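[step 3/7] inverse_fold.run input=structure_tokens len=606
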């Protein structure tokens, strides 16, 4: 029987000392048909292992509605075929710049501040989920001939809490479910994080982007023996909408990697290949003092300035990392797989069909509810998407300021059918006062739930109320439009599309809605990937052949959405654009996408 163990000074594989040279690649951020290529790229860079998280909310968006947990198993099988080991980080919380840190909204909505604690009811739903998920891992452990060598208990818990009872229970649950490979924790190399997140008897690892010697010195104070490992070596960073892009100098990153290895440590490069936040699954962050944290939603691309870019191509950072890693390889490194094909010439896609947001919501939305106060997204069961709130201003009355308290995150507001403004959490009052009687309509979108820190699990939508002067407006009708409503087979066929010219004649209503177009790709199967741009469009989502590419937003810095090659097909292809704020000219553009990155201007991450 094959055995992988944690020794006093190193990892051991069947008793032989081994160093883990791992790279993060999340199966849920890469199209399944591209897994093999991306794993081959990791092997060619000099890695012997791959790490992935598991997002609970992707697989159980609504309680009891479990979707395709077998995807994890299929990915681990692909890892084995690639000749790599696997590290699995099943959560239940994962952070990962992923919506709600991977926790389903029905969990955070129900348990609130009791999540990630010893609360019995919370632990019960975690246990049920783990017993559903973990057989995918257990049967693929190295002791059973599979690739899985390590499994994480929770994730960076010391950055959040200090409930040792919960952590020890979770580690015990992993064992009860059949996990026999070594368990570990990972935290920042700071005393309060390591004391809050470590579990007696489990290997503690550290996460950092530089300063390996100092980081491991802190780790050694808490764990005198055992292999040293940087479980997240941050070789790049992620971007937020409306902010400058973040980059890391390739030479500096390669030097930081070299320092980790010179310490005799193992490493997991985060990210080796970032991929994409398809389907609107990008998370968000809060920054600033706890009482005044600004909201910062994460972009659709999870390129992460990684050595293998979003399009699967080797960057300058890849070649520098490969040069560092080949010094630790027992055999010559394998050659790179062929570079993925891409569009060679731009294609302009005319959008010739349109349906207004109201019509789309009638066709695909949830039933409308009516209540005294506005229900949150969580109360309506909406994870990703938007909610239409409608409320009356009684009258007659004079004009007063109209606004929203507790808005999360952005609302396009109409008064008696006329666009009155766009509200945000920071700017929640319309520029012009509103007289009564009037009918107010608010289209509120969640821009991504917080994935890290004490604001994890905060609700979305109108979490306070609609105010006219200081008076709450009661009697609110609400209807959700979930993104996954577009994914059901044939669902969009129920949308009453008319000619796109109708949008121009619909006044304010024509500035938003679902736009549709088709384009033809010449050639055989295996069409290459592409980049999609929407010049002049403001904010919304795009689907190609029913596959949701994610959110676009003119706020930048991201301008191009990645279109995986397997999504495209020879012959006719269809595009849907759901514009939520202000449509541009009725066309989109497909092209070869962003050039291979060799370093770009922006905020430098160290």
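[step 3/7] decode complete -> sequence:
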């Amino acid at each position: 029987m094959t055995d992988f163990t944690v020794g006093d000074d190193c990892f051991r594989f069947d008793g032989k000392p081994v160093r883990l040279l791992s790279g993060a690649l999340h199966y849920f951020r890469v199209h399944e048909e591209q897994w093999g290529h991306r794993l081959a790229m990791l092997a060619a860079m000099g890695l012997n292992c791959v790490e992935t998280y598991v997002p609970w909310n992707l697989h159980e968006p609504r309680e009891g509605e479990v979707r395709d947990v077998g995807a994890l198993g299929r990915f681990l099988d692909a890892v084995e075929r690639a000749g790599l080991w696997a590290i699995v980080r099943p959560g239940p919380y994962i952070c990962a710049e992923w919506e709600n840190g991977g926790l389903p909204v029905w969990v955070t909505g129900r348990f609130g501040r009791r999540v990630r604690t010893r609360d019995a009811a919370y632990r019960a739903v975690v246990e049920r989920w783990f017993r559903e998920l973990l057989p995918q891992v257990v049967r693929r452990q190295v002791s059973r001939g599979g690739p899985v060598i390590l499994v994480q208990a929770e994730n960076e818990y010391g950055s959040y809490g200090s409930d040792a009872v919960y952590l020890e229970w979770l580690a015990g649950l992993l064992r009860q479910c059949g996990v026999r490979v070594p368990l570990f924790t990972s935290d920042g190399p700071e005393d309060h994080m390591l004391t809050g997140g470590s579990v007696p008897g489990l290997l503690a690892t550290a996460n950092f982007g530089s300063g390996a010697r100092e980081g491991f010195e802190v780790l050694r104070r808490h764990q005198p023996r055992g292999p040293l490992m940087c479980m997240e070596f941050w070789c790049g960073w992620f971007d937020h909408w409306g902010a400058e892009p973040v980059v890391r100098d390739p030479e500096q990153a390669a030097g930081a990697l070299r320092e980790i290895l010179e310490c005799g440590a193992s490493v997991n490069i985060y990210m080796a290949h970032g991929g994409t936040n398809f389907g609107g699954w990008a998370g968000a962050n809060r920054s600033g003092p706890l009482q005044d944290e600004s909201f910062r939603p994460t972009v659709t691309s999870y390129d992460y300035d990684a050595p293998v870019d979003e399009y699967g191509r080797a960057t300058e950072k890849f070649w520098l990392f490969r040069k560092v890693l080949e010094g630790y390889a027992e055999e010559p490194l394998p050659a790179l797989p062929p570079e993925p094909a891409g569009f060679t010439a731009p294609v302009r896609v005319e959008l010739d069909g349109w349906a207004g947001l109201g019509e789309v919501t009638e066709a695909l939305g949830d039933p409308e509810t009516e209540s005294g106060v506005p229900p949150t997204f969580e109360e309506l069961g909406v994870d990703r998407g938007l909610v239409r709130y409608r409320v009356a201003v009684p009258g007659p009355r004079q004009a007063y300021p109209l606004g929203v308290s507790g808005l999360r995150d952005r609302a396009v507001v109409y008064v008696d059918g006329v666009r009155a403004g766009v509200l945000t959490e920071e700017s929640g009052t319309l520029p012009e006062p509103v007289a009564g009687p009037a009918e107010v309509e608010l289209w509120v979108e969640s821009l991504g739930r917080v994935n890290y820190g004490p604001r994890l699990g905060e609700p979305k939508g109108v979490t306070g109320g609609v105010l006219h002067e200081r008076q709450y407006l009661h009697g609110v009708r609400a209807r959700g439009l979930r993104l996954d409503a577009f994914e059901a087979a044939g669902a969009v066929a129920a949308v009453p599309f008319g000619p796109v010219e109708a949008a121009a004649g619909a006044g304010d209503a024509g500035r938003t809605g679902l736009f549709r177009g088709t384009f033809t790709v010449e050639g055989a199967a295996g069409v290459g990937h592409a980049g999609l741009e929407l010049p002049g469009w403001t904010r919304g989502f795009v689907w190609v052949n029913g596959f949701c590419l994610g959110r676009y937003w003119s706020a930048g810095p991201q301008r191009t959405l990645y279109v995986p090659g397997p999504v495209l097909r020879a012959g006719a292809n269809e595009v849907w654009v759901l514009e939520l704020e202000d449509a541009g000219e009725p066309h989109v553009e497909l092209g070869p996408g962003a050039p291979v990155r060799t370093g770009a201007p922006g905020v430098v991450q160290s």
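[step 4/7] annotate
The CA atoms of residues 310 and 515 lie 26 Å apart.
The two ends are 43 Å apart (CA to CA).
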